[in-house]
Amino acid sequence: MTVRPNFxxxxxxxxVDVNALTxxxxxxxxxxxxxxxxxxxxxxLFFLYASGVAETENLEVQxxxxxxxxxxxxxxxxxxxxxxxxxxxxxxVLSGQSMPTTPVPWSYEGLRLSAMLLNAPFxxxxxxxxxxxxxxxxxxxxxxxxxxxxxxxxxYEKFNASIYQRFFAAAEPDFWENYVxxxxxxxxxxxxxxxxxxxxxxxxxxxxxxxxxxxxxxxKLMDVALEGCFLVHKLSPLISAQLDxxxxxxCSDVITKVNPQPLVTYSYRLLDLSSEDFFVTLPKEQINDxxxxxxxxxxx
Length: 300
What we know:
Blueprint: H1 10-14, H2 21-31, H3 35-50, H4 53-56, H5 60-69, H6 80-94, H7 106-119, H8 124-137, H9 146-159, H10 165-169, H11 175-203, H12 211-235, H13 242-256, H14 261-268, H15 273-281, H16 285-296
């Protein structure tokens, strides 16, 4: 199993070792001294477990044991209805339709809910929960993009696995329209942040210690943005409306023609006016190179 490139950003986001994600997150769980710190570390570990990272790092058994010890019941339950009920209740709070009894720490609770879905027995009800969750997660400024991105990628992988084909055959007609729209939105979140890092790179004086870091971070964000672009490219043909297909066609142009320009053009609409005005003036050679490199890393 391939570890998706969003995890390369976890050193800054969650202060864990991106070359030993599961091990360092277990260490984070052990060293946390506050209840909130332990809950955050457990949510991160559950997400690594459910997304297959722990298995890839040969720490799946240990991760599961640590989660059980930490009281994370979602790692052992196969009760689909319980998962749906808990997720629906959380999404009601996230959408503002109900009030929580205590403040919800969405910065890591979103990852935990995403992990619950990734770990749930898959069927059409869970498929619909994926879309509902991605829709609300991607609107929240508190929930990490990872929560949406991994759900999107998991649907793509399941769509390509014969064992799940009966569920996709029974999907509602608008399922793929909603999916591709969400893939484009999540791609845009990573793309906007990548462009902002590129702007920061040019705003700093030459030789400043952090300039290289901004360019490196731009490249990491661009790797994830291009995976979102890839999802749109691969799955937009399943949309029935020709007009919608036309809207998403630029993603296919980027990937099939290895052409950064449509993506750079699309990024302008993601920026506020002052950032857009500045970005327009910048040389694009380096960001174009980062896009081309990201395309070269995509699955075939």
